[in-house]
Write a structure and sequence with these properties.
With 301 residues, the chain is an alpha+beta fold. The protein has four helices and 19 strands. It starts with 5 loop residues before the first helix and ends with a strand.
Length: 301
């Protein structure tokens, strides 16, 4: 075999490069799907659309496009025509498989997104004839409102997270009581003898004990349900002699069913001196249809 000249070697190399360029692009580079949803993809992701050299592809939008809405990154290998709510691109026959040209379309209705971009990717086999572009247009005010709502929701979640973390660091039960008494003894007082129960109460108070510690008070009640319906305490309010209401936190094991008794504990982070008792205490269920009210609530000092 005769040795090849340098010119022949160069010719073979160029032919080999052309053959490699003719290979179809990877499937991930473009799609021949007839629908593109702009809202279903990240804004920074530019979708690839498979086009055939010498064959037109039409992009159909849901609203009329303004004049001069189309920009091509390379007008030498792709032509286009704009009309109404569509854009038709014409890849020239010289448009090689794997070659890419960016198509950018600007919308004129003032809604978001303001524009959309697509990669036109040459493909020897696949090529979509028509692509419907779905764009859920939203006004700038709507987007601002959604962003503000998202920020408010995130802020509320952060606050709730902080509250839960703080609660996890608090001791409960007997350990909590022992921790409180490290600086001051917990005082208690039997209230039942001096308690005045409202005659229309839904439940009867069988036991009543008040507690005080530095900066906090609590009342523990044992309630008997003589009615025919289950009762569940959901709200507690303490009213002092001046008519000032204080909302109390409430703890209970479960609803108190007919004919049974159950404990309810209410309290607040306030000192007994701040409350100005004797006070009245009112427990209510969710719909406030049935309540338990008592007067003569005091706290030990």
């Amino acid at each position: 075999m005769l040795p090849l000249s340098p010119g022949a070697l160069l010719t073979l190399a160029l032919l080999a490069g052309t053959a490699g360029a003719a290979d179809p692009p990877r499937a991930s580079e473009c799609s021949a799907a007839p629908l593109i949803d702009l809202m279903a993809k990240p804004a920074e992701l530019v979708p690839g659309v498979c086009v055939n050299p010498g064959a037109p592809t039409t992009f159909v939008f849901g609203a009329p496009l303004p004049s001069g809405a189309v920009v091509l990154s390379d007008n030498r290998s792709v032509d286009f025509a704009q009309g109404g709510a569509f854009v038709t691109v014409y890849p020239k026959r010289s448009f090689l498989p794997g070659e890419r040209v960016k198509l950018t379309v600007r919308f004129g209705d003032g809604a978001a997104p303001e524009e959309a971009a697509f990669w036109l990717v040459g493909h020897a086999e696949q090529g979509v004839r028509s692509v419907e572009v779905f764009r859920s247009a939203r006004s700038a005010d709507e987007l601002k409102r959604e962003a503000a709502e998202a920020r408010a929701e995130a802020s509320q979640c952060q606050k709730e997270k902080a509250r839960l973390l703080a609660e996890r660091t608090k001791l409960g039960g007997l350990m909590g009581a022992a921790w409180l008494e490290r600086t001051e003894e917990i005082h208690s007082k039997d209230l039942l003898e001096g308690l005045v129960q409202h005659p229309g109460n839904a439940l009867t108070v069988e036991e009543a004990t008040s507690y005080s510690n530095k900066g906090s008070i609590a009342v523990r009640l044992l309630l008997r349900n003589f009615g025919t319906e289950t009762w569940t305490a959901t709200e507690a309010m303490l009213t002092n002699s001046m008519g000032v209401d204080v909302v109390l936190s409430l703890w209970r094991d479960a609803a108190i069913s007919s004919g049974s008794s159950g404990f309810v504990v209410v309290g607040v982070e306030k000192s007994s001196e701040q409350l100005g008792c004797p006070c009245s205490l009112k427990l209510r269920e969710e719909q406030q249809a049935r309540a338990v009210t008592m007067k003569g609530v005091t706290f030990p000092f």
